[in-house]
Batch of 2 targets.
Target 1
Amino acid sequence: MKHFELRDSFLIGHRQIDAEHAHMVKLLNACIDISNTNANRADFSTKFLELGDAVRKHIINEEAIMTELGYLNVDTEINVHEKGIQVFGELVKDCRRNVSTEMILKQAVCNLLELMLKADLGFKDYLHQTGYPGP
Ligand SMILES: [Fe+2]
Ligand SMILES: [Fe+2]
């Protein structure tokens, strides 16, 4: 499986949010490396749980940042985040079952990160419109 690439179009323009997205992608790619090299399942699960924690922390931080900057679509974001966390919770359970790591990662990439990163693009537009970070 190929690495997930955080394309420039996914950059939000907020330093902390972009750094946290990059961190999550780094952890996801580390999971992909473990999966590709057929390393043991415990190693994979440990790294995948680390990714899960990073996602949860990111969501808390991101919602706080969005609220602080007066982003009015934060409710939509909260819904996407809840869905993302739900999907992620299932994938963490899949780590303990016999689901292939490849399948877990495919779902993590498609249903979670792309869904969540795409939702953040509304906030990117908002920052652009409001001239963030200002003069
Ligand atoms: Fe985000
Ligand atoms: Fe988000």
Note: The chain has one domain: 11-128.
Target 2
Amino acid sequence: MAKNYLTVKSFSNDNRTYHLTRAASGGHITCTCPAYAFSTESPKTCKHIQVYGWKLGERKTATLTVTVQMDNASFTDGAGELENLLGKVAAAVEDGHTAGALRDLNGNTVCRYEVK
Ligand SMILES: [Zn+2]
């Protein structure tokens, strides 16, 4: 059975947390953040629900876009490097990041990702 309560960090302030709750009887998830309180969508939503909702069993799918710079020098080991990058993207998404870029040792962007 899926959890029905989750504490998440604010995306803009690491010292602030919000609480996602899903009633035991099911239904939609609520969040304690201001964006949820002022949401005009029906049902109400916020970035926390969009990113973490799957952990409470509401979202069945998410779209993760990963763009990889395939001509990067590190791609001499193509599949291995791709596995490495996807692992890092997975860790970042699990950590609550909704978008970002991964860079190589020289500071070149080798991968961008976005969750919607
Ligand atoms: Zn929220």
Note: DSSP finds three helices and six strands in the chain.
